[in-house]
């Protein structure tokens, strides 16, 4: 096994940047470097990181070691016996999912008792040998394992679980439908599955049109009423236009909800389809906001041009979309919303401060935003020291910054505010009216 090396790089704590390790060409935080070492079985690196890790990080590293590309037994032994990492149960079922049988056995020797979860995770990963091993150890609750095996398309394990008494055939059918495993879906029907609507929804979300139609025919034959609303909306969220069209052609009518789901997923073609099929301006403001937050500028523009700038919901939607875009750093969308008529620059500036986007904060200030106190509070609360400095330079109250830093627990900003003359007593006791968007 080749041993990687980790070079410790020290950064200024005052600037809010914690120490990092360089491993190869990449930089890692302390906990990331620790987990990297555990996952790769690099014992020297684990030892060098040990004193800097918190207890919870040690446990995370143990889980990662169990999920590694190889069976990092030496790393696990070091963690268990020398560093007293106690949670071997999680390590066992993480290893089971990856098919590391030796680690599964080792964890059980250490006292792990989660054989039922190990079986379920192994079933999802298709590792029949570990599934059988857990059964040999006395696991009788196989209803967790069968749906996971079905979702993964592992028919042999599905059949095995059924032989051992698994009864949740509807859950298994839904899992199989989600990923398009038709043979397992049909097998579950033979075993008595009846939840046609749930299976159809899962197939629609996964984009499996043939299965959707198969469930529809089954429902018609069985006299079951199909709830097209959820089938169509889940297909829209997944971007499966042909299934959406198929639902519309069969009488599905909730195009507004479907449009919302399509916008959430960034599927402009389905948003346009819903508009063509009669979607109204109800919730268009929320649709614009969701699309803007995720960077789907075309959907924001499509809604705007469809209903026009004089529409009341569009006016709300422009400001809402601008603030969501500001918080997630979508400067191009912010600028477009401003050109289209958005006016709430304060809301956008506070959102940008909350998200840590200095350039958008500066843009809003240039265009007349004035609520610096709320902006400095939002930035300090989330540790964005550069924005705190900018707002302070423009005249924001230092006590507001201290209040945000106290609430967010950012020591470096609290220290900076103290240097500026803030008092510790102000934390959390300022006027909240200026923070209505924070």
What does this protein look like?
With 438 residues, this protein is mainly α. Among the domains are: 112 residues, Serine Threonine Protein Phosphatase 5, Tetratricopeptide repeat; 95 residues, Ankyrin repeat-containing domain (Serine Threonine Protein Phosphatase 5, Tetratricopeptide repeat). It is built from 28 helices and three strands. A hairpin with a 2-residue loop joins β2 and β3. α9 packs parallel to α11 and α17 packs parallel to α19. The longest helix is centred in the C-terminal third of the chain and has 16 residues.
Q: What are its keywords?
A:
single chain, 438 residues, mainly alpha, Serine Threonine Protein Phosphatase 5, Tetratricopeptide repeat, 3-stranded antiparallel beta sheet, flat
